[in-house]
Amino acid sequence: MQGTIVKAGARGLVAPGPLSSRSSRYWAPYLLVAPPVLLIASLVIYPLLYNIWLSVHHYRTGEFVGLYNFAQALADPQFLASLHATAIFVASALVVEVLLGLGLALLIHRTIRSGWARTVIYILFLLPMVTPPVAAGVIARLIYTPTYGVLNVLLMRLGVIHQEILWLARPWTAMFAVVSVDIWQWMPFVFLVCFAGLQGVPLDTVEAAVVDGADGWRLFRHIELPHLETLLLLVVVFRFTDTFRVFDHVLVLTGGGPGATTEFLSVYLYRNAFKFFNLGYSAALSLFVLLVTSVAFTVLTRYLGREVTA
Amino acid sequence: MKPSRTKLIVLGLGILVLTSTAFAAPALPPKPAKLTMAVVAGGETKGLKAILPIWERERGVKIDLVEYPYPTLYEKLVTAFQANAATFDLLIADDPWMPKFGSEGWLVPLDSTFGYKRDPDIFPVVYDLGSWPPPRGPIPPGEASKARHLYAITLVGNVEFFLYRKDLVSAPKTWNDVVANAKKVNDPNKPLYGFVIRGAKGNPVISEFTPVLLSFGAKIFDDKWRVVLNSKAAVDALTFFAKTLTQYAPPGVANYDAAERAREVATGRAAQGFIWPAEINDIVENPAVSQVVGKLGYTLAPAGPGGKHAPLIGNWLLAIPKGSTNQRWAYEFIVWATSARMQKPYALGGGIPFRKSVLTDAAMNKQFTFFKAMADSLAAPAEWRPRTSEWFAVEAILGTHVNAALAGVETPQQAIAKSAAEIEARMKDAGYYR
Question: Do B298 and B183 fall into the same domain?
């Protein structure tokens, strides 16, 4: 049945007249597919191939150097430091964003029924997401800066601290600061996706579970979570790839410091490419980023596929 | 005989007339509709903007300023040069960019192309900055054989010097004087700090640390680009910077950039520190934002244990890209903008001058109390960043570890040793040696 429809559709696409000849019919599908293929080739395939070409050439001499740039990365302490910093950032931001977003979605789903109140919440949660990351970095810098930063003043007035915390000048507090901005900006995304997912849980199933004596946790574990699993996996994929590439607000907030404690892979890559113009090395690093995100994406989508099929 | 003599005289006169026109300066080509100039966004172009209406009135050629933030300007210029695009007719470039621009041959030589003549009213260091290959210090591999030309002339005579609260302390001549002053006034309860540091990672902390490093007698490279940073002098300099000076500095300076430093001075919370001229006009001597107007003194960067002063130069240079289609008019503008006649209106309009006659002018010094410190610093002569296109990588490496030492993440010994090893690896990779 499906085959018939496709055939009829294909026939319908071919205009009568000269194009209806055998050769026209042969070329028509290729012509129709050509524009998107050309677009993808120019925007994705060519840059990717050029990137691979750059990664196997020396940035100054242009000589072919094989895998030298990749080997150099493995012996580069700054690259390893940036990898370490990225791992800490991704793990902490991802865990907090998912747990907090999911928790808030559950809380609001179960406690707030009013339509207008939910609309207000949607808007409030959308605001951080539409804030440009650079602006978020500037705002955060004003919050965390010593002496006149809002956070220190607030904590001191509340009596929580008696001495200024040097948020951006100490390794762990600087990491906390950059993670907090990411959470502020992207936890709402997790919330909105989970909240939308919870709306899709059949009400009669929930009511039946409640009648059977399911408490809040069991309701979540056995009724709501199975409905959310696919969405949560998608959220994890998106947030993993995004946090792995984090850049803008970090550059504004800490510039990668103190030392190299917040110099994430993307910041290090940017410096190599656009400050030192070492395009060969940065191309190798970007292929590494591509590899990691692709592997993560493949693993998660396979798992996702299994979940959907099941 | 007679007619032939007349013929000879006529012929001789004819040759004279012809050759005299051949030696005269070539006439200016027709006026272009406009000249496009890439500049950095910020206070550095204040003086330029003040004199542009005069140029447009006098010469009738409009100048379009295209402003980019500091990091973007370099990227835009490199991209335009690589494409040999006629995007810009003129540009202003930070002086550490000269090695890259000079070695790539992206700029028009001003001496051999237009016959630019040096002016004794301009400090020699200013001409050194705009010349390639550099007239002193190590020269990058492959560059020494090139003929030296002048490719750029200073527009913004930026040089780093020292400020102190003259109502609280006396002018420090050495780092020991700085520490003594700091001890005398430091009181975090007021709060008043003895010394403020611009310690943020990368360029900020290196601009601040380099005058200390060099004044202690340490160097990053020898004359063959071998890294000689890992020395006792360098460790002493960093220990002094990250341990001694921070005792008198506001908390959190490891994240301070120029804005934070100027704020500490302007709000009366810091008694001493380094300063660049643009921050003086815009912030610390600006009555609209500063509480310490008239209370600040300016002097040469303090001397280290060996008596060496090492003020850091950071001029912005005017140059013409090879891709420009209006090179002759661009040159006209450079000569006009850097002339002695325009230097005073330029300075009065908020620009940072570079001519001896203006920096040592008594009337100008009354109005701009930092001019003498600037003149002393340029005459010292001011130190430049090593003339290599690898400087940005070197600065990033050293700037990461010095910042780490300032934040207490690394010891001064570790920071210097790691920096030296990483810089050497970088220079090897760049083909400076095997």
Answer: yes
- Tell me the shortest Cα–Cα distance from B75 to chain A, in angstroms: 7
Q: Residue A271 carries which DSSP code?
A: I
**CATH (domain of B373):** 3.40.190.10
Look at residues A137, A133, A108, A107 and name the one whose alpha carbon lies nearest to residue A121: A108
Best residue in A65, A138, A147, A262 for a mutation probing chain B (most B CBs within 10 Å): A147
Per-residue pLDDT of chain B (434 residues; tens, 9 = 90+): 445 666 666 555 555 444 444 444 457 899 999 999 999 988 889 999 999 999 999 999 999 999 998 878 998 999 899 888 889 999 999 999 999 999 999 999 999 999 999 999 999 999 999 999 999 999 999 899 999 999 999 999 999 999 999 999 999 999 999 999 999 999 999 999 999 999 999 999 999 999 999 999 999 999 999 999 999 999 999 999 999 999 999 988 998 999 899 999 999 999 999 999 988 988 999 999 999 999 999 999 999 999 999 999 999 999 999 999 999 999 999 999 999 999 999 999 999 999 999 999 999 999 999 999 999 999 988 999 999 989 989 999 999 999 999 999 999 999 999 999 999 998 998 889 88
Specify if B257 maps to a domain: yes
- State pTM to two decimals: 0.82
- b/e per residue A199-238 (b: at least 16 CB within 10 A): eebeeeeeeebeeeebeeeebbeebbeebbbebbbebbbb
A70-309 homologous superfamily: MetI-like (1.10.3720.10)
Structural domain for B96, as ranges: 34-158+314-379
Would you give the end-to-end CA distance of chain B in angstroms? 76
Residue B416 and residue B278 in one domain = yes
Which among A138, A277, A281 is the top mutation candidate for probing chain B, defined by the most B β-carbons within 10 Å of its own β-carbon? Answer: A277
| Contacting residues of A for B81, CB less than 8 Å apart | none
Looking at the fold, whether B264 and B366 belong to one and the same domain comes out as no
User: SS3 of B336, please?
Assistant: helix
Tell me, yes or no, whether B279 lies in a domain.
Answer: yes
Tell if the CB–CB gap between A261 and B409 is shorter than 8 Å: yes
**Do residues B381 and B311 make contact, with C-beta atoms less than 8 angstroms apart?**
no
Contacts of B339 (CB under 8 A, 6+ apart): none
Domain map (residue ranges) of chain A: 22-55, 70-309
